[in-house]
Amino acid sequence: MISSLHRPTRALIDLGAICDNIETVKANIPEGKKAFAVVKANAYGHGAKKVAQAVHHLVDGFCVSNVDEALELREAGIEETILILGVIMPNEVALARDYDITLTVASQEWLDLANEQDISLKGVNVHLKVDSGMGRIGVRSLEEAESLMANLKKAGANVEGIFTHFATADEADNTKFNEQLAFFTNIVNNLSEKPALVHASNSATSIWHSETIFNIVRLGIVMYGLNPSGTDIALPYPIKPALSLESALVHVKTIPAGATVGYGATYTAQKEEYIATVPIGYADGWTRDLQGFSVLVNGQFCEIVGRVSMDQITIRLPEKFPIGTKVTLIGQEGDKAISATDLAQKCGTINYEVLCLLSDRIPRFYSK
To answer: Which residues form the active site (predicted)?
Structure first.
């Protein structure tokens, strides 16, 4: 999708805030721990290349979802370790080797398939994934882990790491978290040969369970300045959201009482009202369920009336403002603010999804 540079809708990314957030987390975890920056999904909508280039001096490596995301970083000049957190197909191993990309291996079946296809793992760096209770990918016992590690080494792979992922580290109830931690710790402590890198800590773990960090933290949503729990658990220290989203009024009109607005005529004016159009819609990731939510115009909350269209929204103004007046969709304006978490609560989702849905049609502009 082409970036729409010739309209006023744009995302502003504060790279300095991301760097500061990383420094803040590192100052609040035990010394000597490595930090990997998670930049999958285009750095949670912030722009993977720009973010990685800005923070590479602060971290020991990066985490991505797939080979293409890893290649994007290498092509951007990133030389640090890049770990693919997901499972790739064996026929992509040669590409990973060529670009020094570290792979996740999650099952003996995967290794069997690689062997059947005569794919060499010689010299490839791998991390073994343990399913400690997330239920997605990974081995599920000490015996599986021990056997798979031995077979990977026999195949010539360098098994440099082992990791897991917590399902409930961002929740107040620690029961499931403690079960997973105990399961993973038992496997790690009883391996005949423990890999050099052991990690389980995501953003939530680094914030609320820093005492459980092994030797790497994987910093995701926290480095972009958002609370992993939404509003369920208070943050123990301040972080700064790095992304703001703004646009402008492109049309302003007066409608009479009884006039309807938008597809399905779902909004009817109760009196004469000022209605303005803003160029953003569900094709940009501003989803249809945001009808009834508000944006900021001239420091005032203005409700989205009528259904969100593919390319436009309509809002009710308290007074007539001129075309070109700034609209804040995410961010601060005066003493009022709208966060990605606010949008998530309106949509019944999480702030991660709000950021990841912001499409490439919205251009990103960067500051340090």
So the answer is: 40, 263
Q: In this structure, is residue 160 part of a structural domain?
A: yes
List for the chain the helix, strand, coil content (%; round to 5). Answer: 35, 25, 40
Percent of the chain with pLDDT over 90: 99
CA distance 108 to 90: 12
Residue 353 lies in a domain: no
| Catalytic residue chosen out of the listed positions 40, 44, 267, 282 | 40
- 320 phi-psi bin (left φ>0, alpha ψ -120 to 50, beta other): beta
What range defines the domain where residue 98 resides?
15-224
Q: Are 129 and 271 part of one and the same domain?
A: no
- 164 with 42, same domain: the answer is yes
Q: How many domains does the chain have?
A: 2
Of 154, 263, 320, 336, the active-site residue reads 263
Residue environment code for 52-71, b if the CB has 16+ CB neighbours within 10 A, otherwise e: bbbbbebbebbbbeebebbb
pLDDT at 338 over 90: yes
* Catalytic residue check, 282: no
Q: Is 136 annotated as a binding residue?
A: yes
Rounded to whole angstroms, what are the CA distances from 134 to 124, 140, 175, 280, 315? 26, 10, 14, 36, 42
Q: Is 149 annotated as a binding residue?
A: no
> pTM above the 0.90 mark?
yes
